[in-house]
């Protein structure tokens, strides 16, 4: 792996956050995704709730119904917008979840519970199951389950890559690739990334957050590491134009494709746990009890 030369910048004053409080009854906000309706949608894991925040900060919460009458509602983690214009989410129950923007829930049986979901280039939903399998689910709920990756490692997060395949992080020092036909390839990483997020960049690479680094990975597995000492926790990242944005212990940061980075502190000083590029063209991040919208300004 090639190691990039660090080029750091002082925190710029041209990017600031507007924070919106969110009612969190249990746990915290977890995963965020741009919705098909101009809003940002998010999950509250322990509260078994999906939320929606408008571009103006108005929040609406949708508690999950139980897929099995008489049983508690399951925890929810990953969420994405499907090709059918609905929100799809991963849950601890053995069901794939679907929620329309009008608030209508549907459950589809799966072989196991899941942690993450991403919309694929084939129009299907791709789930990471608790058993280590990756499952492809059509928008009508037809499930195809693929074997555990050859390494035996458990996949964690998954995303559609710029090469027409799905890419996933693992609970080990590896990153994986699976074609829409279910063919796996895995590549070793230089730094721990057990629960790291990953995202496609405008440079045609997949970017993954490692421990103190962002790594760019080509479709053939060629890698280049860029130091990002401020990156925190699960290291979630998202692309906006020619910049890769990432979470920090006090807010967010971004990195250019050449490795230059800057960090920005939230007004509350809270760290961010997840982020996404919103439909409004701004980066949105989640904090413990609020959601921040990062905008340019004086």
What is the topology?
Layout: E1 2-3, E2 7-8, E3 15-21, E4 29-34, E5 40-44, E6 49-53, E7 59-63, E8 76-81, E9 87-91, E10 95-99, E11 105-109, E12 114-119, E13 125-129, E14 134-137, E15 143-146, E16 155-160, E17 166-170, E18 174-178, E19 184-188, E20 198-200, E21 206-210, E22 213-217, E23 223-227, E24 237-240, E25 243-247, E26 251-256, E27 260-265, E28 274-277, E29 283-286, E30 290-296
Parallel strand pairs: 1-23, 2-27
Antiparallel strand pairs: 3-30, 4-5, 5-6, 6-7, 8-9, 9-10, 10-11, 12-13, 13-14, 14-15, 16-17, 17-18, 18-19, 20-21, 21-22, 22-23, 24-25, 25-26, 26-27, 28-29, 29-30
Account of the protein in words:
With 298 residues, the chain is mainly β. It has a single domain (2-296), classed as YVTN repeat-like/Quinoprotein amine dehydrogenase (Methylamine Dehydrogenase, Chain H, 7 Propeller). The chain contains no helices and 30 strands. The strands form seven sheets. It has a five-stranded mixed β-sheet, with no helix packed on it. A five-stranded mixed β-sheet has the order 2-27-26-25-24, with no helix packed on it. The protein has a four-stranded antiparallel β-sheet with strand order 3-30-29-28, with no helix packed on it. Strand 12 (114-119) and strand 13 (125-129) form a beta hairpin. The radius of gyration is 18 Å and the shape is globular. The chain starts with a strand and ends with a strand.
